[in-house]
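Researcher: Quick sanity check before group meeting.
Model: Go ahead. Protein one:
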Amino acid sequence: NIQIGDLKVNNFTFALVDDVLGLGSIYTQPSSSFDGILGLGFGSLSVGQVPTVMKALNSSGMLKEPVFGFFLGDEEDGQLVFGGVDPEYYSGEFSFSPVISAAYWEIAMDEIKIGSASTESWVMKLAKSKSAIVDSG
């Protein structure tokens, strides 16, 4: 069984990774501190086609919507919400982009613009790939 907050999935298969050397230096540095990794990628990445956590939660009927939302804290704790988003951590409306690869959260993208009406904008054009992977890690 697996339980995340109030969400519980019975007879869920998951893997324990005890060798993180292939995951990059962020996981292997002596100063690294983490409790684990919860993959939220698509089932096509799942070893042995084991259902993903998100698929199992959605199939269980416990989620209000088949979505999850992150708040990545800096000076405060972060948050992961399954089945919705926490309106305390965003303003405005969401814009959705279709996923173009059923493996990673890859979306089509021509450029990234950072800035606002009160700051100078910075633009990075994606000349070669024309895509980006949206990832929390």
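Researcher: Fine. The other one?
Model: Protein two, sequence then structure:
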Amino acid sequence: MEDPMRAIDVSPSNAADELQEVERIPKSDPSPDSVDALLSTELYELSLVERDQVLEDIHGIRAAQVTETPDLIASSLEELEKEIKLIRNKSEYDYAYALDPQYVRKPEFRIRFL
């Protein structure tokens, strides 16, 4: 059976560098600990900015960043209201609404759920 570490598709310009990186993983010990150690080493070698970019990519933070405008907030709050109305069993919401309807309907409160 072919070594899975050799089945990496790389462009010719980066092939030597990629092969060198792959060879840093011990073939006799492809354990999660050795892979974790390699990832930690690689992250440590990155600059702070590069490391933040990688972590943002992994966690999907950067792609989710949206410029919040008053129009976007208003339309999102309207959409939230529509979705709340579609929920059939919302006993906790109904209870909170019965306690203080003005607070539950405040945009400052509702925006926490967007």
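Researcher: One line on it for the slide.
Model: The mean pLDDT is 79.
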